[in-house]
């Protein structure tokens, strides 16, 4: 039977029976009209200060935020191209609940890989990103404190520098934004890529859940390259990590992370830059590690994290805190990473000092650091450790909970640390306090080792210090004056 | 209920009205074609009475008790005279007849009624007559094996398997590729993630027969590819009948097991399969100021800025969550039990006949899996140094499921005369599953340095289907017209699923970590309204040529909503003595989540407010959507007996797909998804009779497959237990499929069969679920890949064993075997990326749930003289793809197998699913059956294979079930 012959009578028969019921419903889609009227006043126009400007929707091309105005971010604000310039002293607020015309369910600023930010504050006039509820930057009273996380999502910066996850190197989707959207991808091979400059920037009260169980950090970096400048950044209260770095080659300097509720410094997916003068202090609800440092995915990926960190002062939840559990290390290096820690102070944690993951696999963190199987020369050298559930370098090691470990009691790690000039002793910090207005925080060490054990550093772009920790004894704190810790009265005068 | 019982009894009593006469009934079919014959004259000379067969080939005559000779005549056929037909008072005698076409030698045959096997006719009808390749199960078979629902029944069809006890997989093609319909109308799904209906909703007692078609013809829906399962419900009964059935079952894993756990919410309608409202989303939670703007209120509380009225409002909102607890109660489940009642009758008003059927069913069953496991592994790049698998999250514990199924079917058929018939049918079915997944022995090495990991999911899912149909069938000489219209409501109601997951440190203290969501309450509901209209017109130009045309229209409107309320512990001061913190509660969820620990707990000595637990509305607008699926279709086909031996049929179907989904997404690019396409689907079939007992069939057709609304809606839904989120794709397109089939079949004698089939299918743009490689937190997304193909063969064999020895005369053996191979391309991106991790990875994988082989075997003993019958039944399905591997990890397969001491499956070769049933019938009215299922005690295991080891992803042991069932039947 010839099919062609059949088609015609079929069509006639079908039409006669009225089978082709109207297909013209296209101009009347189900539900509300998706297009907002552009002339309409913004739904929150009446809720902002007089010189307020609401930023709703993407920024495409150069844009300047001037210090004369107060900016309100409404939902996801993608900087899709060009440079977002922010003048010193500018205050950028974020709405708790994005308006009906916003994109996304939480407020976040996303510097995409095709755009840059130029946010250069000064110690006198820092740039402040905060919640609409924060009255302090506009001269009001202090109504918030270390417990107010999740008031908005946070800042994401994306670039084209190398990162690696499961074979993907150039189009990795950033954590937190679940929609499959090219604007939220990062990675590539431009090691010197620049996402711009952030200096003297304060990021407060972040970590709202973007998806179930999916928060972003105060500052999230994906594939950010070495051409980017990130220094003097204050992250104050985040429901997730303080700063999380996914791959990239960027160097970070003078970063303060206070009261992050997960990890303070979380590094992942092959970050290979350096960090110097990093300060973290935990508190608040159930904070986890001061340093959670992963490799890439999978553990034996060709690109893995081997960033080198210098002069950190990492303070946990307190020697007598109940969380995290006493058995937890405050610094963990795992998933095949090979980080270096030089000339730092790790103290005020209730549990143990460090875990260097040892799964008995050929390229786990233990093999890459202690045994240096890849020749990274990773070192944990010249540091002061002091944690609540340990009494010595030997007892502060967390042995990996895995049946095939090489170093079943942590003694090899301990010997390696001791050999590299690590000591376990009280750094005798000037003062630690964790409630708003407490006024005694002074994280400068007084112990003798603090100025005697510093190891020699090889990285040409970092400073060789004579002291350990993020702060030089006898000098003014670099967190004084401009950080939220200073402005909210945590620091000693 | 009282009203209902009254009706029931009056129906039962109706039997007495017919106590005097007896009834002769049956079906007349063409011996050659197996087709039902309309208008056959039946004459009983000694009673001077008679009748005519109707549009379904049936006849029905009432006679006084006695012995008769009955004549069946039709103009073009041999007359058949049946002697010694016994009619007894108040009973029905069934006499199914085949008529042969007239031959020169004989124009009539005489047989004795004792030599007529009614079964022969029904089998002929199922097999020979059919134009497309098809298999079927009759109600007799369904009763014999004792299947409780349609999903179980379908599994024994050649090439069929069932996924998750609910969803049909035909020739390795499940979900979107196979159609489930009831009385010719595609059944809606009640599961938002699925395309195909879950057949477990339809109890066997409602079913007359099940037919599975394997080749496409233009009068079938165009999304036919793997096969179409059509469930025919009972229509015009031959006579008055009543069937009462009750059963009790004992499961060796579940019944009387003290480990069984239940939701402490006291649901007064639990026994009936409904929620009494105690799990319903509290109306106060919608657009609730406190839940929506929790941050703002926390700041007010912190600054002591709330009025007493606000405190009261805040507390009443927050404390309303304490009525939905996270603890569980132990309970000891008793025996599973079920009750089925069905009855029907036919009334005569001259030429006009009225028939009805009523069926009621209720069942309650429990399942307890003591050694439940759900694990997740990550993987290193294979480097030759041992296994690549790394434990990521291990969940170990138990699962307790309490299931209630109830249903009601009613149908009324009005046969105005033998050529005009109208039927209305309403079917209601409700299934409620209450479950507690309690994983108290897990670990989370992927996120935690030490300690263990516990979690628990408490849920209630209710699925309802209410299908109303009006259909008619009319014949005018050579013209037959069939029409139907349906109004179908289906829903899935999932109120108040509760999830809590927490690490426990080495000292036994509970705490929260960011890697695990805080405890939450989850609500989800789906409501579909579907309208269908269908018209089929067939005209017989001659005995050799007929044409069929028709049209079909369906529209399904859906509303889907998800809500989520999550615990917040911000601002709560764990060290406050008034507040019981999570760590202090140490697993005492009853006190931790109590009203005393929730909201504002009071003021401290300084007058500041003390804060306890609070909740936040985490509902995502993009997780709700509305949508419409519209399909309109028209077809024209012809059937042409080219010669006595060659039959051709084929034609073309045109389908217009008009789907649209609108989600609440705030990303404009992702808000809407739609498909608007017209497809022309030609098909051609050829049946060549090699000789009287054997056929060769060839067929080729084009079909399609469509995404469902969930797949078009771009939101991410989250798996509660560490599974990956699933994201929809508004740009997904439909799939076009080319099908080719060859079948050789021999019918040595009635009830015996040997058939060999081969099939080949080619897919363009197949829709697959891919693990997105873009993120280090993998998520599934639906995409179209380039190509897919599937091929295989089936062997089917049915034989009476009388030929071996006369002692085996009552033994029947049947078996079928299906081999299938399939490959669907990975997307180029997935392949290129994953190849970097595992150079041995292939660029394709099989279709999900496609087993390389399926084996069914059945041995039946039946002795009508002694009333004993028995059946032994075995089913084996080779390993099948259950989930994709992420990164360097291998894909996940599922098999029924035995576990070793480490909880790993011992072998990839499946353990047969074997069941046995023995039945004794007393006095034709009462029968008792004992059955045992899962005789070999397999577990259902999902695993990843690496370095010759099987890493368990999921395991559960259903145990052996012993079931005693008693049936009382009249007619």
The poorly predicted ranges of chain A are 1-37
Ranges of chain B where pLDDT stays below 50 over 5 or more residues in a row are: 1-19
Which pair of chains has the greatest number of interface residues, and how are they split between the two chains? A-B, 93 and 110 residues
The CATH topology of the domain at 2-123 in chain B comes to Immunoglobulin-like
Q: Largest sheet of chain B at a glance?
A: 22 strands, antiparallel, barrel
Task: Name the descriptors.
heterodimer; A: 493 residues; mainly beta; 2 domains; 5-stranded parallel β-barrel; two-stranded antiparallel sheet; 31 strands; disordered N terminus; B: 971 residues; Immunoglobulin-like; Ferric Hydroxamate Uptake Protein, Chain A, domain 1; 22-stranded antiparallel barrel; 5-stranded mixed beta sheet; globular
Question: What does this molecule look like?
Answer:
- The complex is a heterodimer of chains A (493) and B (971).
- Chain A has helices spanning 3-16, 365-369, 411-419, 484-487; strands at 52-56, 59-60, 63-65, 70-86, 91-94, 103-111, 115-120, 127-131, 154-158, 172-173, 185-186, 196-206, 209-211, 214-215, 219-222, 229-238, 243-246, 251-260, 265-268, 274-281, 291-293, 308-315, 329-333, 340-342, 345-349, 352-356, 380-381, 384-387, 423-424, 429-431, 442-445.
- Chain A has two domains: 46-262; 310-493, no CATH class.
- In chain A, helix 3 (411-419) links the parallel strand 28 (384-387) and strand 29.
- Chain A is globular.
- Chain A is built from four helices and 31 strands.
- Chain A has a five-stranded parallel beta barrel. A two-stranded antiparallel sheet of chain A has the order 10-11.
- With 493 residues, chain A is mostly beta strands.
- Chain B has 971 residues and is mostly beta strands.
- Helix content of chain B is 8%, strand content 53%.
- Chain B contains eleven helices and 52 strands.
- Chain B has a 22-stranded antiparallel β-barrel.
- The two termini of chain B are 27 Å apart.
- Residues 1-19 of chain B have low confidence and may be disordered.
- At the A-B interface, helix 1, strand 6, strand 10 and strand 14 of A face helix 6, strand 27, strand 31, strand 32 and strand 33 of B.
